[in-house]
Amino acid sequence: EREAALDEVAAKAKEVQDLLSQIETERDEARRVQEGLEAEIKDVMRQLEFARMEHEDERQVLMDFVYSVRRDAAAEKDRLTIHFESLLEEARQKVEELQAQLK
Q1: pTM for this predicted structure
Q2: Nearest by Cα to 19 from 99, 89, 76
Q3: Mean pLDDT, to the nearest integer, of 50-61?
Q4: For position 92, what pLDDT does the model report?
Q5: 57 partner at 20 to 30 Å CA-CA among 16, 17, 74, 103?
Q6: Mean pLDDT on 63-68
Q7: Residue ranges of the alpha helices (H) in 1-103?
């Protein structure tokens, strides 16, 4: 019976480790997405500066694009934050289960 309990604790610990690994992987991916979006915004801002000097209509199109990219980045950040919080809560619950079983 003790062996079965230890196996169950080990399985739960593995689940927690897997969740933490998933969180880390997704956080890294979110960082890469954010860095890509920031680079894209900088590039667009350079294009915007050029367009301002050249064509006012192009400038408005680029401003709309920058606004769209920023809005999309903020929405993605919010989505990932909610997702990470959910994963962290799941990991916390698993840890609490493990702690309760170890008592």
Answers
A1: 0.49
A2: 89
A3: 73
A4: 87
A5: 74
A6: 88
A7: 2-54, 56-102
